[in-house]
Predict the structure.
Amino acid sequence: MTEMVYGAVPVRDAEPVLPKWWRTIDKWSISCVLILFGIGILLGLAASPPLAEKNGFAPFHYVQRQAVFGFLALAAMVLTSMMSPAVVRRLAVIGFLAAFAALILLPVFGTDFGKGAVRWYSLGFASLQPSEFLKPGFVVVAAWMMAASQDINGPPGISWSFVLAMVIVGFLAMQPDFGQACLVLFGWGVMYFVAGAPILLLMAMAVCVIVAGSVAYSNSEHFARRIDGFLSPDVDPNTQLGFATNAIREGGFFGVGVGEGEVKWSLPDAHTDFIIAVAAEEYGLILVLCIIGLYATVLVRSLARLMRERDPFIRLAGTGLVAIFAVQAMINIGVAVRLLPAKGMTLPFVSYGGSSLIAGGIAVGMLFAFTRSRPQGEIGDILRGRLR
């Protein structure tokens, strides 16, 4: 009778936050991320002292900074993974708008740090790269639009997300930063495929990407030089790719020994873009395969959980996030072993870098929030119900 007069009392989840988070999180995936960060610190101890000595810092200056940035990244990852998908979506929209505004203002207030591409804001004590924070926000916003388009009388979310992706790609190409532009396009394409894109349309998009690459090759000396270097049968031993190739060859299966590597004294980006060359030289193929296995574990386990997800937004957003995470690692390793053209891109949670570490922590935290176990029927139950 009381409920009829005053309304039903809402049932509260009495389980504490931390035990519930630990029970529902994918422990294998989060363990892999922690191991990757530990490997990054280990490799930083070998790769960063030469650069610190060159710049007049203490030997482990960059390792200490990486530890600080890594602690912030892991804290952001854990806090984000504790949130509900609805809260993650709200915060992602706000973060996306802030990062997008920062990306637009880069030509006015940004700097290139002498690297020829205006991608960063100088904060004095550190630098900020907006594109790193833009990627996870864009994935969530685009997934939200695509999921809304599947509702009855829903908005044309796929078209809106595509226009948004093209605008972002345009701003990134003007920096120029073709690597991040490709990641944004790839993330959108994967989500569109999962949402049910016609295969002919995806093939047409692939042709458009090839045409755009040809235009960039004809009009960008920087882009053409990297493509020519990749296609050349000979590798200049005095280039970054030459040093990295030689280091991987010298490392062999077991490596030359801890601290015995030489490539860190030759590569200016040994602690960032070519950290895998340091790992291959000092620890050999064994460590490289372990690193690849860790990324593959996160990818496979996340996709396995997302395949059972009923909510289309969660399924699309999670797929886009894990796809960008895995492909960024693949590009970094592929460049080092000369399977892909040279492109400055960090190895997630392993390479040194404040923006990449913290943004990576937020992105993986979102992924873990979307892949947490929730009380629901599996998507297969829906499919079987429709077939009856």
Summary: The chain is about 70% helix and 0% strand. Residues 1-11 have pLDDT under 50 and may be disordered.
